[in-house]
Amino acid sequence: MSQRIFSGIQPSGSVHIGNYAGALRNWVELQKNHQCIYCIVDYHAMTMPYDPAQMPQRVLDAALDILACGVDPERSLLFVQSHVPQHCELSWILGCTAPMGELNRMTQFKEKGERVDSVTVGLFTYPVLQSADILLYRAGAVPVGEDQLQHLELTREIARRFNARYGDTFPEPKPVLTPSPRVMDLSDPTRKMSKSVEGSTIMLSDSDEVILRLIKRAVTDVGPAGDEMSPGVKNLFTLLEATASPEVVAKFEADYASKSLRYGDLKAALSESMLATLRPIRERRAELAANPKRVLEILGDSARQCRKMADETLAEVRHKCGLGAGL
Ligand code: TRP
Predict the structure, then answer these.
(1) How far apart, in Å, do the first and last CA atoms of the chain sit?
(2) What is residue 54's predicted lDDT score, i.e. its pLDDT?
(3) Is the CB of 26 under 6 A from ligand 1?
(4) Which residues contact 64 (CB under 8 A, 6 or more apart)?
(5) pLDDT at 222 exceeding the cut of 70
(6) Distance from the CA of 259 to the CA of which of 44, 74, 184, 195 falls in 20 to 30 A?
(7) Which atom of ligand 1 lies at the shortest distance from residue 41's CA?
(8) CA separation for the pair 236, 17 (Å, rounded)
(9) 47 in helix, strand or coil?
(10) What is the pLDDT of residue 177?
(11) Is 38 helix (H, G, I), strand (E, B) or coil?
């Protein structure tokens, strides 16, 4: 068995095709050959303004989406971060080795900090908690998108410093840069797909009719065609790659190269692959949503196993750090 994988996702409501293509598809793929631990990071979600009344539903929706996409509870662990409060203890301990100067340089902190009236300590130490998530399970590899590489580099730095100060404890986790294409907005392909823009985002829960309409309306070329593939066509190819077989993608790429590509054909193929991909996900989601007890059971079982692993790591960490009066 190869190294242990850890990754986290924010419970930010329903999932769209961009989240699927960028993260969840990789999560499903990786569990075939690795022991995977996946976490819904509700502690992290508290670092920006939020409504506590909505949080439980957001977490449950995330769990439904992740399971519906094919994360298999028989093979992988899927748990809610706050069910394992040990993350916070390790975060504190790591915070005492994390260099403040480096945290100050985190671009996500700077970006998010600009969007709030009052910047909290939690937002500042977000990457330390993320390091704790990963190191608590001594994960060797972390599938992330490019925007998280800086946090992962910080995790490696924190692990190095901890090991140097207290003795070899944590492996330095490596990023797994799985294919994580940026899916763009269907009506404005120069913008990243986001669920706040209605009518241009394909949600995993959308019906066949909605999906077909969105693809039909998707922008292809705007303005005079240059030598480069237009952003709209590129986006359709990105979605095709995420949902169709390599042969189908290769055929359309060859058509494009020989300038014989018809957008209508590309859209027809994309519609077919998209419906074929999303239909089973939607059906599994509906089945799971009808049985929330089963979902809570999966989350609870995983959390139990994670707490056990976390306690083992923490016992060693506490001992090495001289905590607990040696008892
Ligand atoms: N910060 C990550 C994101 O916004 C989510 C996350 C939290 C995470 N903890 C993690 C990702 C640990 C990988 C590993 O996408």
Answers:
(1) 35
(2) 96
(3) no
(4) 285, 288, 289, 295
(5) no
(6) 184
(7) 7
(8) 12
(9) coil
(10) 81
(11) strand
